What does this fold into?
Amino acid sequence: MKIHIPHGVNVVMGHTRMTTQGNAQFNQNNHPFLGHVDGNSFALAHNGVLWNDKELRMEENLPLTSVETDSYVAVQLLEQQKTLDFDSLKAMAEKVEGSFVFTVLDKDNSIWFVVGDNPLCIMYYDGFLLYASTQEILCKAIKKLRLKAPTDILEPKEGEILKIDRIGRITYGAFTPKSSFEHWWRKYPYFRDYCEDTPESYDDLFSVAKAFGVSADEVQALLDYGCSEEEIEEMLYDPALLHEMTGELLYAY
It folds into this structure.
C-alpha cells in the first residue's frame, strides 16, 4: 500500500481489518473511528472482536448510528463519559466483552493503549515508535524499512493501560479484564471438554479462531472431521463459508 502523508502530519494510524461485522465497502465501518469528547476529537482502532456490543448499546442507552462494526461501541462508551483519560478508558474496557487491544490517539498526539487478551508490541526509536500485534510482524516491517534495531521494546500485559505522549513519556493505568479466558469458557461451554482432549499444539489455533469470530466448537468440528490445522487457518479468511460448513457438520452430529 502506498500512501501520501501531507506536510505537518506527525502521527499515522492504520489498521488491517479482517471483516467480522459491518460491510468494509462502507468506509464508516472501517477503523480508525473518529470520536468526540469535551469539544475535542480522538481516533480509535481495535484489534479483536467484541461479543456484547449490541447488548451494551441497549443497556447503556447509546445513540443509534449507521456504523455496523462491533468496535464502534468503544467510541460511544468514551463519548458517553465526555472525557478521555485513564478512568474513562478503564470504565470502557471493563464493560466490553471479547478480545481486544484498543489504540486511541488524542488531540495532543498522545497515544493510549488499552491491552486486553490480544498481543501488542511497541518498538521505540529516536523520535518515533512503531507498534503492531507481535514482534514478528514488526521485525518484518523494520527489515523492509531498513531500520536499525529499536532502542527499546515494550510488550504490555493484559489489564494494562499505557499513555505515551508526543515526547515519549509513559504513564500507566490498569483495569480488570471482564473477558478473561475463564469468561470465554463460560461463553463457549463445550470448550472445556475440548481442552481436555485437544493436543496442546491446537491452543494457538483456538486463539486465532476466536479473533476471527469463530467459536471453539466450530474449530473442533472441523478437527473431528479431519481437517488439518493449516486447512482451518485458510478457512478463517472466508468466515461465511466456514460457518456454513461447520453448521452442516454440527447439525450432522
User: Anything to note?
Assistant: Strands lie at 33-37, 40-50, 98-105, 111-115, 121-125, 128-132, 152-154, 160-164, 170-174. Residues 188-252 form one domain. The chain has two domains: 27-120+156-174, 188-252.
